[in-house]
Write a structure and sequence with these properties.
mainly beta, 1 helix
Length: 426
């Protein structure tokens, strides 16, 4: 027999054996899902577009202040089920334009900018049914267990990076363990001499019924490589590890019709940023940096036409970016009135208070107060509070003391923004 025939016979035998071994793994269900998101925020201050977010990432305000002029996301999911009960999900989330504040034309100039380009934000595979009916394992890059304030828009809980994990059911509750990695210099032109890889070991236990709601528990042990003996830019010893934890309550709107989510978190060292907020940004803390975080937000339904969204957030950090102590409080409300099936009126007001141990080091006072009021007339396919798609014309006015304007990035102590925010998710 010729050599090529021997190889062909061997391949045929292997395929035959594989087919026999794979009995029961025939596909019974196979399908695709496509979801997406777009946020286009046209904002004008004194006749020009603006890069300013008016302190929103630091809980100074809660207006329609996101600086992305045109952010687009697509999530593609392939779900497959097999004859033997195993299922598989393949998820890819792509994003374009997040963080870009310029208004581009059709000249193709976006290709020349290295900011906010096309990115793959999530790409992971999850396999279920192998280790038990309620158990799955996953591997890849993802945003794990994210939560964000309803008006601040800030993600206070997440593990953003690449890793692997296992999720199952314990006594009817969702439980999981994950190991996630992130490099602080990933995507930057200037690379570190040694990689300072951040790692987070996540443990979570969700859905504990307490009668008036359900509790979620998160705990994370974080470490960072190659920082031993190094100093932060404010000359403190850099943290090599840290621990963070949070408890979240999901319930009605404080006993009324609606919903709310309330949480408290604590973190030390690497985990000082709200305790459970892990990603490439987690590496700039000191050994004795600590963070206490508390938030509550939700939507109240009043009758058939009126809804009220609220958020109250408290942020307290010690040894934080050169300050001995930083305290921040945000209180915000957004009443919404349904005018008809496709239009509603919104008004948003927020007050942010920031207390610093040395305000002059950050170019502002020790105590800073930020105020904002916004009115809007969203045009929607569904006039519910979260009715989308929507096109939302709005006017926002920001006020602070002259000496505090740096905390909101303003040229003067007052600024007015005219904008149209277009948003859809599907």
């Amino acid at each position: 027999m010729k050599k090529v025939s021997l190889i062909a016979a061997a391949v045929a035998s292997t395929l035959a054996a594989g087919t026999a071994f794979a009995a029961g793994t025939d596909v019974t269900t196979d399908g695709w899902e496509v979801h997406g998101y777009m946020s286009s925020n046209v904002r004008v201050v004194d006749g020009t577009t603006t890069d300013n977010e008016f302190g929103k990432p630091d809980y100074a305000s809660a207006g329609t202040s996101g600086k992305s002029t045109n952010q687009v996301e697509f999530t593609v999911k392939k779900h497959t089920e097999y004859e033997n009960g195993v299922w598989a999900d393949y998820v890819v989330r792509t994003e374009y334009g997040n963080g870009n504040s310029y208004a581009y034309s059709s000249s193709g100039s976006q290709k020349k900018d290295d900011e906010a380009q096309f990115e793959v934000k999530e790409a992971f595979v999850e396999l279920g049914g192998i280790l038990g009916e309620d158990t799955s394992v996953w591997g890849g890059q993802r945003f794990l267990n994210r939560s964000a304030g309803i008006l601040s828009g800030e993600f206070w809980k997440q593990s953003s990076g690449i890793g692997a994990g296992l999720q199952t059911k314990l006594a009817g509750h969702t439980a999981g363990v994950a190991y996630v990695l992130a490099d602080p210099d990933a995507g930057k032109v200037a690379k570190l001499a040694k990689r300072e890889t951040l790692k987070s070991l996540d443990l979570y236990f969700y859905g504990v019924d307490v009668g008036f709601g359900r509790l979620d528990f998160d705990a994370k042990y974080m470490t960072q490589e190659n920082v031993k003996g190094q100093k932060t830019f404010w000359n403190a010893d850099r943290a090599e590890d840290g621990f963070g934890a949070s408890i979240t309550l999901n319930t009605s709107y404080y006993g009324l019709d609606g919903w709310s989510q309330s949480a408290i978190g604590y973190g030390k060292g690497v985990a000082a940023n709200r305790g459970v907020n892990f990603g490439g940004w987690s590496g700039d803390f000191a050994d004795d940096s600590t963070g206490l975080f508390a938030t509550t937000y939700g939507v109240l339904n009043i009758g058939t036409k009126f809804q009220l969204g609220t958020e109250a957030t408290y942020f307290d950090n010690d040894n934080f970016y050169g300050q001995d102590n930083v305290k921040r409080v945000l209180v915000a409300a957004r009443p919404s009135v349904k005018l008809n099936d496709n239009m509603r009126f919104e008004a948003t007001a927020s007050v942010g208070v920031e207390e610093l141990s040395n305000g002059a080091a950050w170019g502002r006072k020790d105590k800073n107060i930020y105020q904002m009021v916004e009115i809007a007339l969203p045009i929607t396919a569904n006039s519910d509070y979260f009715g989308r798609p929507q096109i939302k014309p709005y006017i926002a006015h920001y006020v602070t003391d002259e000496e505090s304007k740096g905390g909101m990035g303003m040229a003067s102590d007052t600024e007015t923004v005219f904008g149209v925010h277009t948003e859809i998710w599907f």
